[in-house]
């Protein structure tokens, strides 16, 4: 099978302040896209119609035959009814039907959308064309350079543009027609969507392939759609087309998914779903313990119509909830007497986190009877415990194919009457650590506060914690009581305010000491006291958080307060603006932000931004490409990780900005050019996630200034290695990107990841605590990445007072001379100086102090190997944590 890339728009398209429009029909003819969507649309799917313009061509349809706004150029003798419309069947070798829009159409961009089923026995050597789109010039010649096909060839589903084939099977796998989901007689949705650069092929809401368009472009003004065969009548298919729509605009992947799910929902197959926990009692709301595994989780499915034979019931644990539930130890099914079936659970090839548990029925399940799918020993991942509120957003999605001769054959109908889900805390889950955090840098005379909280073994806050803390005295610090009675607030924390340093203490950074009445030592961060008017200051944040607006487990309104309660200085909710994986099928569907979500995020960023106290950044993440294709691209050469793909986080300079259309899959050139005009003070940060961008594409890019840093540590990486191999590509190639860390948290714990042992923090040396200053520090690369929440204070100096992220111009005869100073609660194990991606020098330093904070300073100098050499410090600590400073570059 050929490697598939992402379907990439030429430029990001922005829509300000509105959601997807609703199509209507000016002439009263019914269009499937203009019908009000069913209230049964699957959860997380925007129910509005996806495009705010009439189709140029709307043929067949449910309520009428023929075409609206189009011309049938071939006679049709008979129409067959189907759930998707009354459409013609073409009996091979009878031929085909040709249709065209009533008005001229320039094919710079468009979408051909249809429902079809084929009846051919698919054998090697056979080719059958379901539909072909072509354009005719004024002399009647077909533009053969840009014909777009959907066909079956040699047992494979193919999308073709001219003579170049994309040979893929259903759902991205090579077709096996005995076992795969597309088989003769089954209905499926197909779509071709294109712009000036490429054509994408979709089946059942999932994008299977894309193909670059010919440089010549589809320039003719008269379009024809050939149904049931090629334009010359060859490769006739024994097939039926139920509904066919043509737009002169490109529909996005989420748009096509919405159409698919809305039309399936309109079929209204009544299915009641109940689930039972370990007690086996079916109910509509489940309360499950945090600790796993769940001994049994049963799904009771009661159809109001008969289903089978050949019916399927699918329980889809998508990308979001698939991170939450593990794979069950076994799966079995109870069926009515006389009905047999097989059950299994598999992981998605495309999204390994996503899982599908299904039962295929041999026989008929009568209406009103019940089948029960048993999932035994279903693990609840430890990361599930972080969700502190109702977790119905991670409930598995249920789909049904009613099979047999019923109207929904081949279609997986979304069932929305799912139970809700809540979690109960374990009876005995003791706290394991108590934390205390002050700002890392404190100015003499300025009031500061101390934040306290306790955590359990699973990383969740101990909301019932109550204990007494005894503090040791610190010279010059007033307002800190010797004893403090801690009682957890709603977020699990408490704050001691009104602290103040009268002068810079003799030992600086200071050593704060504290113990609980149970003898627990507190996890404390080092604090450096600065003279008045000192700059810069050190601030800590997490710029990569996800909420239920995309694939997170916590509501967005809970993230900023939680980040603030953990002593962070700044944070950003960076929810996805796409489906998370452009090849995702509906049961893998990840909710993407809509206009209402984006409005809410802007409001949250506005209301929680308090300069000098806590800073928010308005952000989103564009995750483009397939995890399935790109997750292992790093070791296979830069050509396997194109710049246009990857995970890219965008941070705006204000709390008001337009949201890109959900179809705007990230084209780096397009978004950088757009932001250069829209918000030149914005920052774009590549993220080391499931999709990894080719950073080499940024070297010499005209808008590279918008991409000043990369994310070297998150929950996708583990200390002390981080993502150095990925980051070293650009450092060694002369690119000048600094380093940050952030969690990519999906579980409601800013800074912490859903894997709990993994963290990610950004340390910024900034002039002040406000949005402009934090972004300026990131643009200047005055940042370092930390894997854990120990918050070590790290400074770097080089020739002439330069610091991390700077470019140093050496004088004649001058050599690079660098030093790093570290103050930390853990001992430094190694200090490494990395030159152009390789360790140039390493030392195991000795601290100048015998108790925390441990103080270390190391220095190094060498002749300049070449102009543009980049150096960064990597500090590894004896507790397994690590820090990476942004590089310093030297020119002569």
Plain-language structure description:
With 892 residues, this protein is mostly beta strands. The two termini are 50 Å apart. The chain contains eight helices and 58 strands. Residues 1-50, 168-180, 383-389, 628-641 and 662-666 have low confidence and may be disordered. The strands form 13 sheets. Strands 39, 40, 41, 48, 49, 51, 53, 54, 56, 57 and 58 form an eleven-stranded mixed beta sheet that branches. Strands 2, 3, 5, 7, 12, 13, 14 and 16 form an eight-stranded antiparallel beta sheet that branches. The chain has a seven-stranded antiparallel beta sheet with strand order 4-6-15-8-9-10-11, with no helix packed on it.
The percent of residues in helical segments reads under 10%
- Number of continuous helical runs: 8
Give the uncertain stretches in residue-range form: 1-50, 168-180, 383-389, 628-641, 662-666
Distance between the termini: 50 Å
The rough form would be described as: globular
Number of strands: 58
Largest sheet: 11 strands, mixed
The residue-averaged pLDDT reads 79
Radius of gyration: 30 Å
Oligomer, anyone?
A: single chain
Strand percent estimate: 35-45%
Structural class: mainly beta
